[in-house]
């Protein structure tokens, strides 16, 4: 067993926050349209595959997030896989929600949903479940179609920074 030399408070919240800051996670972007047809999106480090047959993926989000009303009301999303070249895009989609779709980094894609340019891959999905958990939700999506973009180094989120494996991005 390894002992920790970190003297920070180890209450449940603090232990959770400290541990997950040290858990590198891949970075994805989720996009949708709100009820008025306006694009919404956000970065997600909680993306996971759920099953291969049928192809299912999950992501989690806070139900107080600016994008939640759209995710709660829509049937479809596009999940984008981000690579190192997309660091600026990840930062943009994690910043002010009113600025996330200002610029030419996206275009209408399948079903008119926002499709981000130059990502390593994307998948159109139909939301099949929204499971509330406390102030959050787990979203399950059945993948309907998608495409690969140009390969790139992985983009990870670790210790509150976007990085590539082995070095800062």
From TrEMBL:
Q: Which organism is it from?
A: Microcella pacifica
Q: Which InterPro entries did the record assign?
A: Flavin_Rdtase-like_dom, NADH-dep_flavin_reductase, Split_barrel_FMN-bd
| A GO MF term | FMN binding
The cross-references to Pfam families, in alphabetical order and at most eight, read: Flavin_Reduct (PF01613)
Q: Does the keyword Translocase apply?
A: no
- What processes in GO biological process is this protein linked to? pyrimidine nucleobase catabolic process
Keywords from UniProt, A to Z, are:
Oxidoreductase
Q: Where is the Flavin reductase like domain?
A: 20-164
What name has this protein been given in UniProt? Flavin reductase family protein
């Amino acid at each position: 067993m390894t002992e920790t030399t970190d003297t920070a408070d180890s209450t449940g919240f603090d232990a959770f926050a400290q541990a997950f800051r040290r858990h590198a996670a891949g970075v994805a972007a989720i996009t949708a349209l709100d009820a008025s047809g306006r694009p919404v999106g956000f970065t997600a480090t909680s993306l996971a595959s759920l099953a291969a047959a049928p192809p299912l993926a999950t992501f989690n989000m806070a139900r107080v997030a600016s994008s939640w009303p759209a995710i709660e009301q829509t049937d479809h999303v596009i999940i984008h896989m981000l690579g190192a070249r997309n660091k600026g895009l990840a930062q943009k989609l994690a910043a002010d929600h009113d600025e996330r779709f200002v610029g030419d980094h996206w275009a209408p894609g399948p079903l008119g949903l926002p499709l981000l340019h130059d990502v390593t891959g994307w998948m159109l999905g139909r939301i099949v479940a929204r499971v509330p958990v406390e102030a959050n939700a787990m979203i399950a999506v059945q993948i309907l179609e998608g495409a690969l973009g140009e390969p790139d180094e992985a983009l990870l989120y670790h210790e509150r920074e976007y990085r590539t494996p082995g070095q800062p991005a």
